[in-house]
Amino acid sequence: MSVLLGHLPSSTGPGAAPAVPPSAAEAAATAEHALDTFQTAVSSACAPVLVRPTQGVSFHGRVRSARADGLLVAELITGPNSVSRTGRLLSSTDPEFVKLTWPRRGVLRMAQDGRECEIQAGNLVVHETIRPYQLQTVSPRWEAVVVAVPRDRLGPHLRRISERTAVPVPATSGPARALALMVDELARCDDAGLGDSPTACHLGDALVSMLLAVYAGLPQISGSERISLADRVRAHALANLGDPGLSVDSIAATLGVSVRQVHKMCAQEGFSAAAWIRRRRLERIRRDLLDPALAGRTTTAIAARWGILDTTHLARQFR
Fold first, then answer.
1. Is 0.85 topped by the overall pTM?
2. Residue 6 lies inside a defined structural domain of this protein
3. DSSP strand E in the chain: where?
């Protein structure tokens, strides 16, 4: 998807008609249309937001995006503006993402979870769509790559990232630099090169792994050492997805807690253990079915590999 908005220069080549400056009313109408279109494009890609231009500055912006295995990689270019996702825009039915931003040019101010920061080009920063946040670009031209990762793809590592929203991470060396280079290159791809292909599945896995590597290497924040029961549930489930006997009951027995405790703690973090296991299994089955290297295997064999022995309703679950 590519959306270009705002004023485009007129042709000035030989024989071109003289440019006619727009009236004030025409310019205002064009800027308002550009803003509405940009806001719609950004909101539909992830979650609803409110975009406001800086007073006295005509809005212009461009968004170009591609998807890879459920992740969204977007290239943004805008002038000064503010973006907010406040309480009235939050909904339990919205997709839940962790958004990684890597500014290429300009300055971005971000506020979430009681923290505020100013991000220069060359730094990484994350925020989440499930809680209110505010963004403000303060440069005449701001360019960035934004990657939206479904929260449930981060499993037990989500907490480590969530505790660092609105905290800049230098991307000048090591894993952070490697991640920045990776997202920069992915932003140059279009939908035809990604989507749901086997290549996209591997790229999605690699991107998530790089993100986890960056945040796993950061110093522990004081008071965050305790691993929650929900984290332990997800970690155990991920390690045993191929076991047909994996269930909420078996997890509770392994962890030495009651089934009720498992349900309660997972609900507090916004997910159902049984549904989470089912989604992870379906993701892996779908990925294997798309992999040319596994073309010789039957759907039943692939499903069994991930703990599903009854494939009667499998096709319906992929719809």
1. no
2. no
3. 2-5, 50-53, 61-68, 71-78, 81-85, 97-105, 108-112, 115-119, 123-128, 133-137, 142-150, 169-170
Q: Cα–Cα distances in Å, from 57 out to 40, 76, 81, 123, 184?
A: 20, 18, 9, 26, 28
**Is 22 within a domain?**
no
By residue count, the chain amounts to 319
52 vs 13: CA distance, rounded Å: 35
- Structural domain for 211, as ranges: 30-216
Residues 143 and 283 in one domain: no
Structure tokens at 82: 């503010």
- Is 164 found in the same domain as 46? yes
- 157 within a domain of the structure (yes/no): yes
pLDDT for res 194: 61
To the nearest 10°, report the CA torsion of 167, 171, 172, 175.
120
CB 98 within 8 A of CB 158: yes
8 Å CB contact between 179 and 171: yes
Residue matched to tokens 């599945």: 201
Number of structural domains (the chain) is: 2
**CATH number of the CATH domain containing 129:** 2.60.120.10
> Could you tell me if 76 and 130 lie in one domain?
yes
Contact 311, 299 (CB under 8 A): yes
User: Over the stretch 187-209, which tens digit does the pLDDT of each residue have?
Assistant: 876 554 566 677 778 888 899 99
163, 182, 216 - which closes a domain: 216
81-85, strands of its sheet edge to edge: 50-53, 81-85, 133-137, 108-112, 115-119
> Which residue is associated with the tokens 């997709």?
95
Per-residue pLDDT, averaged over 80-107, amounts to 89
Do 161 and 48 fall into the same domain?
yes
